[in-house]
Structure formats: structure tokens, C-alpha cells
Amino acid sequence: MSKQIDLPEVIPVFPLPGAVLLPRSRLPLHLFEPRYLAMFDDALKTSGRLIGMIQPNEVPGREGTGLMTIGCVGRITQFSETEDGRYMITLYGLSRFRILGEVEGFTPYRRACVSWDGFERDRGPEDHDPQFDRPSFLATLERFLETKGLNTDWDTLKDADDELLINSLSMLLDFEPEDKQALLEAPSLSTRRETLIMLIEYALHGGKGDNLIQ
């Protein structure tokens, strides 16, 4: 997106386990709970139209649901309303953020004070992975999808840019929340690709052995 958006200190956050948004990627969402419909309506009234995606973090003995430390903010780029008042929306990932603390207030949804420091490259040009062995990766991915009984458009995957391919698969493939968080927090596209391959190969071996993501 060519338009620069001011990133505020306080943003609305949408805690959703297993769902991560990555910079320069698109995430479709289905909103139906009243608090998130209110969040969407309020976001549309702002110039940035921003919603922060973050995973919940269950803390034993803690009252309420905590949040992971790092999430990614997205700009609402598309939406449609159903006859019964639900919304289908698309978020375009702008930048990751670090949670500094939650903001108390009168909104039915959660808001957080965030820092954008350390994620400057998210707002820069597309990332590249010069060491990416695409044929080997796609062969491994094909075996993984076969074990899951899933099909995909291989022509589209073969033609996709490195970042779009790696980020889309990191967002779409069904991994545990802590593994999705590791993909989100990867400092570079190369690191994310290495983590993704590790998770796929771990699944292909039946998840045997020690936890790969600590």
C-alpha cells in the first residue's frame, strides 16, 4: 500500500487463537460478536481504519485472558455486511507491534498501548529470501498437504513471490498457537521460512520428538 498511515500509541485489539496477520499480507475475518462489530464500526470512523490482531495467552492462575506480547496491526481494506448484521472483512498487515499494557475504558472490546519500535522493516519494501530453495520447499509442502487431505492451486504457489508464499502459508496452515506465534515473531523472511519448514517436517514425522518451538 502506497499510503503512509500514522501508527497510534493505542489501538483496538482482536484476540483470536491460531490467527496471525503478517506485514504486507491479507487476512479475511468473519465478525459476528457484538463487541467486535462495535470495534469494527469504531475503526471505520478513524482515518487509519486499524485493528490489531493478537493471540490470547492463557496464564495459569491469572484471572481473565492474557495477550501474547507481539501482534500485527492491519488496515481494513474491504468489507461486506450480511443481511443479519455480520461482517466479512479483510485486513492488510501494516506492522507488528509490542504490547505495553491494556487500556481501561468504556469500549466493549479490548484496547492496548503498543510500541512499534524494532519493527521498522515491516513498513519498508517487500522482504526477500535469497536462500529459498522453492522446488524442495514445494515438494515438502505437497507431502504435507497430502497427509492432511488438502488440495491447492500449485500454479499460483509456483508463481507467487517469496514473501507472499511464505507469509500466506504461515497464516493459513493449521499449527498450534505457539507455533503460529513463532512464525509471526520471526525476525526475517528467511527465519520464517526455516521455522515453517521445521514445523511442516515435524508434522510429517507425526509430531514425534521434543517440542521444536520453545
UniProtKB/TrEMBL annotation:
It comes from the Bacteria. Pfam families: LON_substr_bdg. SMART domains: LON (SM00464). This is LON peptidase substrate-binding domain-containing protein. SUPFAM superfamilies: PUA domain-like. Transmembrane segments: none annotated. Residues 11-204 form the Lon N-terminal domain. InterPro entries: Lon_prtase_N (IPR003111), Lon_prtase_N_sf (IPR046336), PUA-like_sf (IPR015947). It comes from Rhodalgimonas zhirmunskyi.
